[in-house]
Structure formats: structure tokens, C-alpha cells
Amino acid sequence: MAGGSSTDMTLPPGAQGPSRGAQRPRAYHRSVSSATPTASAPSAPAADGLTPFQRSLPNLLTAARLGIAAAFFTLLAVWTYPIRDLLDPPRNAITPLHPVWPYLIAAALFGLAALTDAIDGPLARRWKVVSKFGRVMDPFADKVLVIGAFIMLAGPRFAIENIWAPDKPFFQVSGVHPWMVVVILGRELLVTSIRALAEHDGIDFSANWFGKAKMILQACVIPFILVMLGITEVKHGTVGRILIDAAMWMTLVVTVISGIPYLTKGFRVLK
């Protein structure tokens, strides 16, 4: 009777029968609760409905662009243009059927890096996960990729002995000369300096259509030059030579013109 009265006082009326089985749900609850965090935590979405992977994907793409750029620069640094193919008549002439594969691979790497640039920013803005890392590293990766590509194309790996004009010792097969890189780099440094001053004073100095057109053109011309070097002969008078020179001069002119709106706006900021 003592044991029964104790049970009746702790349980509500009518609950005496299931009292022995009431412990099983508690044990089952403990087993489920202990397993739930390890099973659901890795894929649990945040309050905004995004998974941790989605939130970090734009920054991962930006970091990947730097890694691809490193592979791109390494390939251009170790490969020298095949001088023997510029002899007249040519031996082992460069054609689409007998291409220079390192240049085509380099063009593909540059295109892949440019693709990450086209994806990471829109994703960050769409998912509202713009971060300080992305705001700093995204434009930095862009400049490193594009300016670095022009520097490599103007380097000694693309400067060969000029067998057509002895008075000019070297011939730049890429069509990119060091002074052109100075002009392109100078424009970028000037615009960056003006933007920093304007934003310090609270003035919006975001990229305009001229700047975006310049960036798109540069991103297209660099792989175009590499593809032309990989599938055509580029000695004087060839179609490949004419197309490369035309593309590079057009890029240079557009780059300079695109800086004029920034200069005029910069003068207003200085005043």
C-alpha cells in the first residue's frame, strides 16, 4: 500500500497503467536528440535560407580565380614561342590542325578565370552575402589577372629575333609592347586613386559603362591573342598578324578613352 500511494500521488488520475511504459519515450527522446545535431548540422540552412556553402561560394570563386591566374602565369612563363615556325618557308607551320597547345590551354584558363568573375559578384548580390573579403579581393583578383596577362604577353617569352627587319632586333609576336602595358597600368592606377579620394569624401564613384566595356574588351582580347598565336602564323603580312595588331590597338584606344569620364569627374571632386 505504501508503494501504491506514492505512485498515485505523483501521477494524475488514470495514468497508473501506462506508468511503466512512460520511461520508454524518454529514453527514445534522448537517443533521437543526441543523434539529431550530428545528422542535420552540416546541411542546416541559415536564417536567410542559405546553406553555409552557398554563403561562402562567392568568396570561394574569387579565391579560385587567383589560383587559376597563378596557373595561367606559370604556363606563360615557362613556354617560349616556337621561333622555328617563323622561317620562310615555314617548317612545322602553326595551323588549326597543328596548334601550339600551351597557348590554347592558357586561353582556356583565362576564360575560366573570367567566368568566375562573371559569377561571384552577381551571386553575392543576389544572395545578399557581400563581404569585406569580396569587396577587396574581387577587384584585386580582376586587376591581377588582366594586368598580369598583359605584362606576360609583353615579356621576353614573346619577343623573338626579327629576321625580317635586322635594324629592329626583336619582334613581339603577341602584339603587346611594354609601353602599351605602361599606358594600361597607368590608367588603372589613376582611376583607382581618384576613386579612393571620391569615396573618402562620400561621393559615389562606381564603374560606368565605359569602364565595364573596357574590362569586357580586355578580357576578350587576351584569350583572342593567345588563340591566334596557337592556331596561326603571325609573321609580317599574315592574317594572324593583322588581327592581333588590330585587336591590341583597339584595346589600347578604348582603355584610354574609358578613363576620360573618370578624369572629368575626378576634377570636379578635387574642386
Provide the fold topology.
Elements: H1 2-10, H2 23-40, H3 52-78, H4 101-126, H5 132-153, E1 159-161, E2 170-172, H6 178-200, H7 209-231, H8 239-258, H9 260-270
Antiparallel strand pairs: 1-2
Helix pairs in contact: 3-4, 3-5, 4-5, 4-7, 5-6, 6-9, 7-8
Give a brief outline of the structure.
By secondary structure, the chain is mainly alpha-helical.
Radius of gyration: 31 Å
Number of domains: 1
Label the CATH architecture.
Up-down Bundle
Q: Portion of residues in helices?
A: 55-70%
Low-confidence stretches: 1-41
Specify the biggest β-sheet. 2 strands, antiparallel
Number of H/I helices: 9
**How many extended strands?**
2
Mean pLDDT score, rounded?
A: 80
First-residue to last-residue Cα separation: 99 Å
* CATH-defined superfamily: CDP-alcohol phosphotransferase transmembrane (TM) domain
Question: What does this molecule look like?
Answer:
- By secondary structure, the chain is mainly α.
- The chain has one domain (52-270): CDP-alcohol phosphotransferase transmembrane (TM) domain (Four Helix Bundle (Hemerythrin (Met), subunit A), Up-down Bundle), CATH 1.20.120.1760.
- The chain is 66% helix and 2% strand.
- It contains nine helices and two strands.
- It has helices at residues 2-10, 23-40, 52-78, 101-126, 132-153, 178-200, 209-231, 239-258, 260-270, and strands at 159-161, 170-172.
- A hairpin with an 8-residue loop joins strand 1 (159-161) and strand 2 (170-172).
- The radius of gyration is 31 Å and the shape is globular.
- It starts with a helix and ends with a helix.
- Mean pLDDT is 80; it is low at 1-41.
